[in-house]
Amino acid sequence: MKRRFRNPALRLSTAYRALGLCTLLAMPMSAAADFNLEPGDKVRVTLTGLQDLSFEAAIDAHGEVNLQWLGQFQAQGLSTDALEQLVRQDAAGKIVKQYDQNGEIYIIQLDGDEIEIARNGYRPIIIGGDVARTGQIDFRPAITAREAVALAGGVRSRLLADDVTIDPIQLLRWQTTYGQAALQHAQGLVTAWRASSELAQDMDLAPPSQASVSISPRVLKELVAEHVRIRTINQENEAGERAYFEDAQFQAAERIRILEEQKVELAKAVAADEEEEARVVALVQKGLAPGSRMADTRRTTVLSATRLLEVEEDLAATSLILTRLKRDQEQFDQERSLRLLQERRAASLSVRDARHQMDTISKYLAGASDEIGTENLITDIDYSVTIFRVVDGQLQQLGADKLTQLLPGDSVEVSVQEITQEVPLTE
User: Does residue 172 lie within any of the structural domains?
Assistant: First the structure.
């Protein structure tokens, strides 16, 4: 067993460490992003030269952090530097067992300076109110309320309220978006049709009708023609693959037939040679034939048996080739079916999403169709931001604007404000 200790002279005295810790806790934060640790934050502990002992830990609801073999520490309210100093002081003198490349154990006595603690994750921001996606947002230093709203998908429009009207420019945007969704819907339907016809190998399967889409007959015709070309190319490629498999299997089967015939003939020859060899042996034993004739007969028998063995080996190898060809063809057919099924599923999902978007925009357009020309037109959408933050254990409501920088664990409430402008009626 090896024993290896670090230089004891490198270790600070306990009193000196305590003084350093108190000094650090009394220092103000040097950077705005160096937030004190709170429940939900995560840290990573690394040891210089002992990477295998590195690990991650999270601050629990009681403000404590379990640093495994280093112990349990109260981390709430501390900076990562302060926690690092606290852990270093506590770990000084601890013994760590390690194994070298030869499997021999050796012991390291920590002086504490090997330990480094860094933040590995912040408490998330919670955003709610008039945004597209409420819920959690990963915190990053210097994130503003405006950026958090953008990460939440932007503000949620309330233009469908009965007491508001629609800006013609917004109406044009909706019409453009509806056209894009309608094209996506038609493309999905045509793709699903093409995949279904290939799966069923039914080239007479009727494509989507004009009544099932919301695009012009010309565009639908172009989409169908494009997928007919894709289907034709796929058929040609698949036909080439199948022709290869069929030809290779035919050749292997024909070779097997020839080898089996040769095997039968050689088996007969070996039997005849063995019979002749037995007869010659009897003659030699009776002195009716020279001994050299027995050697010649034995040589003939060995050659016939060797040739039979070679044919049997060739027959076994060819049979294996035929089996692999059949398996490869089955795998090709399975992969083809799987590819077409995945194409059809992806197309169906695209159709569903496009249909949902079309239905939603249809409601917008339906609500806007009779509103153009009325007195109030919405020309802008603004929103206000309210921040809820826990300070000294108490939840506080803070006034904020879009450029206010958020802190880890903040809750943000977004409220949309419609700004209207009076315009004269048009005749």
Answer: no
- Classify the phi-psi angles of 369: left when phi > 0, otherwise alpha if psi is within -120 to 50, otherwise beta: alpha
55 pLDDT higher than 50: yes
Count CB-CB contacts under 10 A for residue 87. Answer: 22
Cα separation, 94 vs 90, in Å, equals 8
**Amino acid letter at 12?**
L
Residues 6 or more apart whose Cβ sits within 8 Å of residue 360? none
Is 192 within the bounds of a domain? yes
Cα 427 to Cα 28: distance, rounded to the nearest angstrom = 67
Please give the backbone phi and psi of residue 54, each rounded to the nearest 5 degrees, phi first.
Answer: -70, 150
Is 292 in the same domain as 343?
yes
Tokens of 167: 């800006």
What's the domain range around 391?
125-165+373-422
- 397: DSSP letter: E
Q: How far apart are CA 36 and CA 27, in angstroms?
A: 13
What is the domain-level CATH number for residue 405?
3.10.560
Query: Among residues 67, 66, 111, 118, which one has the least CA distance to residue 91?
Result: 111
Q: Is residue 178 part of a domain?
A: no
Give the pLDDT of residue 316: 93
**Same domain, residue pair 205 and 276:** yes
HSE, CB side, 13 Å, CA atoms: give it for residue 103. 0
Residue-wise pLDDT for 263-315, tens only, equals 999 999 889 888 888 888 888 888 787 878 888 888 888 998 999 999 999 99
Task: Supply the Cα-derived Rg of the chain in whole angstroms.
Answer: 41
The tally of CA atoms less than 13 A away on the side-chain side of residue 57 is 27
CB count within 10 Å of CB 270 equals: 20
Q: What does the pLDDT read at residue 420?
A: 41
Q: How far is CA 340 from CA 192, 208, 249, 314, in A?
A: 9, 18, 26, 39
3-state SS assignment for residue 170: helix
Domain with residue 342: its CATH number is 1.10.287
In percent, the amount of the chain with pLDDT more than 90 equals 31
The band of 68, judged by pLDDT with boundaries at 50, 70 and 90, is confident
User: What pTM was estimated for this model as a whole?
Assistant: 0.43
Q: What is the mean pLDDT of the chain?
A: 79
Three-state SS sequence of 325-352: HHHHHHHHHHHHHHHHHHHHHHHHHHHH
Tens of pLDDT, residues 384-407: 889 998 887 788 888 888 888 898
Domain presence at residue 292: yes
pLDDT bucket at 13, cuts 50 / 70 / 90 = very low
